[in-house]
Amino acid sequence: MANVECRFCHKLIPEHEIEAHYAHHLEDRGDGQHREYATLRPDQRDKDDLTGVPQVYMHLKCRVGTGMPEEIIRTYLVNPWFYNSDRTFCCGCSTHVPLAECIWTEMGENVQEYMNKLRAAYNRAAKLRGGIAAPQVAEEPSLLSRPKFWLWVIAAVFVGCILLTLNIKPGRRR
Ligand SMILES: [Zn+2]
Ligand SMILES: [Zn+2]
Questions:
Q1: Rounded to the nearest whole angstrom, what is the distance from the C-alpha of residue 30 to the centroid of ligand 1?
Q2: What is the pLDDT of residue 59?
Q3: Nearest partner of 36 among 85, 1, 72, judged by Cα
Q4: Rounded to the nearest whole angstrom, what is the distance from the C-alpha of residue 147 to the centroid of ligand 2?
Q5: pLDDT, tens digit, for every residue of 71-114?
Q6: Which of the ligands is closest to the CA of residue 20?
Q7: What pLDDT digit, counting tens, does each position of 110-157 carry?
Q8: DSSP class of residue 16?
Q9: How much is the pTM?
Q10: How far apart are CA 8 and CA 25, in angstroms?
């Protein structure tokens, strides 16, 4: 019978037991967090110095900061597609919240945008390596849900109004 490497504890588990085994890791440990989170095997994780790598995020809705566990950081630095739920635990809300609602306290960058950049860089590197299929690019958030898009719309309307005003004035002088 085939064994499967557990994504949480990295032990070899008989294939027919893996679902129950995963369910155990995913149990609520009492505070809303899972017992364990999936990671790459220790020898596959990033081993570089984490200086300059953001490690604490703040959930914008509750303004509470949460530390990103190092083994998770070292996993998504190697493969930013490893976690694709795009949610993370918030100590303030005691639940998993969208990355898009969090910013890194170190640099103020939105955590979802940060992750998107890591993924884009990963895909570019995968293409350069050639032959290795890059994972599917995650669905971009809809244009209409982006605050920047609306800023541009407002700016465009504003500029449009100014232009209109300028156009009307000479007409009235006639
Ligand atoms: Zn396990
Ligand atoms: Zn929160």
A1: 19
A2: 98
A3: 72
A4: 20
A5: 999 999 999 999 999 999 999 999 999 999 999 999 999 999 99
A6: 1
A7: 999 999 999 999 999 998 887 555 554 444 445 555 556 666 776 777
A8: G
A9: 0.72
A10: 7
Q: How far is the CA of 4 from the centre of ligand 1 (A)?
A: 10
Closest ligand to residue 94's CA? 2
**Distances from the Cα of 125 to the Cα of 52, 74, 116, 119, 129, angstroms:** 21, 18, 14, 10, 6
Q: What are the extents of the domains in the chain? A: 1-38, 40-141, 142-174
Output the CA 34–ligand 1 centroid distance in Å: 13
Residues 6 or more apart whose Cβ sits within 8 Å of residue 83 = 38, 72, 75, 76
Ligand 1 center to residue 37 CA distance, Å? 10
